[in-house]
Structure formats: C-alpha cells, structure tokens
TrEMBL record:
Residues 59-123 form the ChsH2 C-terminal OB-fold domain. This is Zn-ribbon domain-containing OB-fold protein. It comes from Actinomadura physcomitrii. It comes from the Bacteria. InterPro entries: ChsH2_C (IPR002878), ChsH2_Znr (IPR022002), NA-bd_OB-fold (IPR012340), Thioester_dehydratase-like (IPR052513). PANTHER family: BLR3430 PROTEIN (PTHR34075). Pfam families: OB_ChsH2_C, zf-ChsH2. Residues 22-56 form the ChsH2 rubredoxin-like zinc ribbon domain.
C-alpha cells in the first residue's frame, strides 16, 4: 500500500524524553523505554517508572511483532496538513514485548481486522524523520 506522508508536521525532535525513540525510527528499529531497576518496558516514555518510581531509564530494541487491538479510519482531515492523505487508519497496537503504540496502519482499509498479526515498518518522511507504522505480518 502506498501512503503519502506530509512533510509539514513532524514530532518535536528536540524533546530529550522521546528523542531516542525517533532516532531509533531513523535506523528503522522499534524500541521501548526500559526501567533497569524493575525490568519494565513502557511506551510512551516517562521521566520516572510508573511501576517502581525509579528515575533510571534506558531504551531497548524490541521485536517488531504486534497485534491490532483497535483502529479508527479518518475520512476527514482534522488538520489541513493531512488532507491529501484521507482516508487513513490509526491503530492501537500491542507489541509482543508488551508496550502499546498508537500509530499509522499501512494496510488497505478494507483488510484491517481487530486481532490481526502485525509487524512494524518505517516510512522515511524526510531526511530527519522516519515514521513508525505497522503492516500485515
């Protein structure tokens, strides 16, 4: 499936809390924040561990496999920058490692099913930004 992504909107690549995630996306690697104190994986990242309250944090590569929990199909652009991309799907995806991501689905809209097995993939939007998305496994 070919999907066009706008160069007009990108995340805050200067935010140190999430920057390691976006750097990994540039390398086409799926990562999650890891608490070395209690061995908990999490996403989105936090400045402290929600499990043990430790301020220690690290990032670790996780396997790209996941299952689709839920999804929504956008048929109207909530932001003009996405007008050329309508319709598109956003999914809530639970990775086999545990962390849950809300991300773009690179799947034909009529083939999306709750519970379907997925694999992470990455779309290079521009020289500085690659977008995490999931496609059919």
């Amino acid at each position: 499936m070919s999907v066009h992504y706008s160069n007009q909107i990108t995340p805050d690549l200067d935010n140190p809390l999430i920057l390691p995630f976006w750097e990994a996306c540039q390398r086409h690697e799926l990562v999650a924040q890891h608490c070395p104190s209690c061995d908990t994986l999490r996403f989105p990242p936090l400045s402290i561990c929600a499990n043990c309250w430790s301020e220690n944090q690290a990032w670790t590569r996780i396997e790209p496999f996941a299952t689709l929990w839920s999804f929504v199909i956008y048929r109207r652009a909530m932001n003009p920058a996405f007008a050329d991309e309508i319709p598109y799907a956003i999914g809530r995806v639970k990775t086999d490692a545990g962390p849950v991501f809300e991300t773009r689905l690179a799947i034909p809209l009529d083939e999306i099913e709750i519970g379907m097995p997925l694999v992470a993939s990455f779309r290079d939007v521009n020289a500085d930004f690659s977008l995490l998305q999931f496609e059919k496994r």
